[in-house]
Write a structure and sequence with these properties.
The chain is built from 13 helices and 7 strands. The chain has 275 residues and is an alpha/beta fold. The protein has a single domain, classed as P-loop containing nucleotide triphosphate hydrolases (Rossmann fold). A 7-stranded parallel β-sheet has the order 3-2-4-1-5-6-7, sandwiched between helices. The longest helix has 18 residues. The radius of gyration is 18 Å and the shape is globular. One of its GO terms (molecular function) is GTPase activity. One of its GO terms (cellular component) is cytoplasm. InterPro entries: GTPase_ArgK, P-loop_NTPase.
Length: 275
């Protein structure tokens, strides 16, 4: 059995070390490593495609990591296996992740049912999409049925990530300055907008409700690309309030996409774009 076959079998056996090695090859800029990654993916493609793929974006410091950890732990309690692919702007070129990255989502990282991977953003959205999509497929082959892709909160990157996920979640803090700074393009990509009340967030319940209403009004003025009507809701990554409603909306969105055939169409367009 050659090295590529060994790694492919290790991924199928749900061995985290083997999955990490395969993703490292996919992320490499070396031609030999890229060729290895493509060979491994070809061996695994028949075992991919069944996971729920969710992109989570928002301004840096808005509580994305805390929300992902809280949601991931909640989903594990419900019997899911959760993989998190975080595209980090804070990672250092050539030096891996910063110490801060290693402490993010610490509780989730310790769970056997979870896999958390931080990757350095290249600054080019197409490249980031390529790496994340290949990593996503490898995670699917490893048996993870929910894939959460966390972005750096840059508009161009959001547009790229939207080409590889089924559902786009935009997280905002509800602060007036952040609401005013949300780009129309980011709202157009969002299937769900969550107004998050996180630690250090001075927004009160009335302010959070007002921010949610503002987001919902803005969404109603847009022409969605699918039959799904985007929704805005409130949640708290700290207390867990609203997480069940958030997940219910993600599931409802998925069911509608399946029923209308839009999920198959979207993934086919993504596959062609990736190829």
């Amino acid at each position: 059995m050659n090295r590529n076959e060994t790694l492919a079998q290790g991924v199928l056996a749900r061995e985290p070390a083997m999955l990490s090695q395969a993703i490292t090859l996919a992320e490499s800029n070396l031609a030999a490593h890229r060729a290895q990654a493509q060979d491994i993916l070809q061996r695994l493609l028949s075992r991919t495609g069944k996971a729920m793929r969710i992109g989570i974006s928002g301004a840096p410091g808005g509580g994305k990591s805390r929300l992902i950890e809280a949601l991931g732990l909640r989903l594990i309690e419900q019997g899911h296996r959760v993989a998190v692919l975080a595209i980090d702007s804070s990672s250092q070129p050539g030096g891996g992740n910063t110490p801060d990255d290693k402490t993010r989502m610490a509780q989730l990282s310790l769970r056997d049912e979870a896999y958390v991977r931080h990757s350095l953003t290249s600054g080019h959205p197409d490249s980031d999409t390529r790496v994340s999509r290949e990593s996503l497929l490898l995670c699917e082959a490893a048996g993870f049925d929910v894939i959460l892709v966390e972005t750096v909160g840059v508009a161009q990157t959001e547009a790229g990530i939207s080409k590889m996920v089924d559902c786009c979640l935009l997280l905002v803090s509800g602060a007036d300055d952040e609401l005013q700074s949300i780009e129309k393009g980011m709202l157009e990509l969002a299937d769900i907008v969550a107004v998050n009340k996180a630690d250090g967030n001075t927004i009160n319940d009335a302010g959070q409700a007002r921010a949610t209403s503002t987001c919902q009004h803005a969404l109603s003025l847009l022409q969605p690309a699918s039959s799904w009507k985007p929704v805005a809701l409130t949640c708290s990554a700290t207390t867990g309030d609203g997480l069940d409603e958030l997940w219910q909306n993600v599931r409802t969105h998925r069911r509608q996409m399946i029923d209308t055939g839009e999920l198959v169409e979207r993934r086919e367009q993504q596959r062609i774009s990736w190829t």
